[in-house]
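Each lists chain and fold; for instance:
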Amino acid sequence: KAFPYELRDQLRGENYVIEDLNLLTAPKVPDNADVIMVIGPRRDLLQQEEEKLREFLVDRRRHGLFLMDLNADVKTLPRFEAILRTYGVAIDPVLVIERDPSFHVPQVPIGLVPEMSYHAITGSLRSSDLPVLFPRSQAIVEADTKKRTIEIESVLTTSERAWGKVDLKSESTEQTLADKRGPFKL
C-alpha cells in the first residue's frame, strides 16, 4: 500500500526524511536509513527482498515497523512471519474488540486506545499526554519458540475485558465461544 499522506506529512513535520524503497530493485536498504516501514503488504516477500530486510534489521541492528493489513491472511505471508519470529513474536489473527469504555473511542469498540506502559518508546507520548489510537487491531503474541537473548516488553495493551474475534469475515459483533479472551498485546 501507499504510505498514508497524513502520516508522511506528520513525520516530515517532525523532521523525518521519508523515502520510498523498492526492496526488489534496490541493491540494499540505504546506509543512512534508521527505520524501515512495511505498510499493508499484499504479497509475501521474495527471497532477495527478505535477505535485504534481514540484513538491515538483524545484521545492521536497525529498526522496522510492520503495519499488517487486518484482512490479509498472515498464513499467506510466511517470509514476513519468519521475520517476526526472529524477534520472538507472531500475529494472532483476531480482530480485537474492547468492552471497557475507557480503552476505546466512544461507541467504537474497535477504535482502541490502549494502555501505554512506561518505556523509552512511549515516553514522549506519555509526557505529552497523547493517546495512541488503533482503529482496527490484531494482537501480537510471543512465538512458541524464541531465542533466550530476546526480551519482549509489552508497551501497548488492552484491558482484561477485551476479546478477539476469530472469524474475521463475520459481520456480527457478538462474541462467540470460539473467540479469544483478552487482555491483548498490540
User: Anything to note?
Assistant: The chain has a mean pLDDT of 90. The first strand starts at residue 35 and ends at 39.
